[in-house]
Amino acid sequence: MSNTAQPVVEISDLVKSYRRGEQIVPVLTGITFDIAAGDFVALMGPSGSGKSTLLNMIAGIDKPDSGSLRVAGTDITALSEAGLADWRSRNVGFIFQFYNLLPVLTAFENIELPLLLTDLSARERGEHVAAALSMMGLTDRSDHYPSELSGGQQQRVAIARAIITDPTILVADEPTGDLDRVSAAEILNLIERLNRELGKTVIMVTHDPQAASKAHTVRHLEKGELSAG
Question: Which of 105, 122, 148, 200 is the most buried if burial means most Cβ atoms within 10 Å?
Answer without folding.
Answer: 200
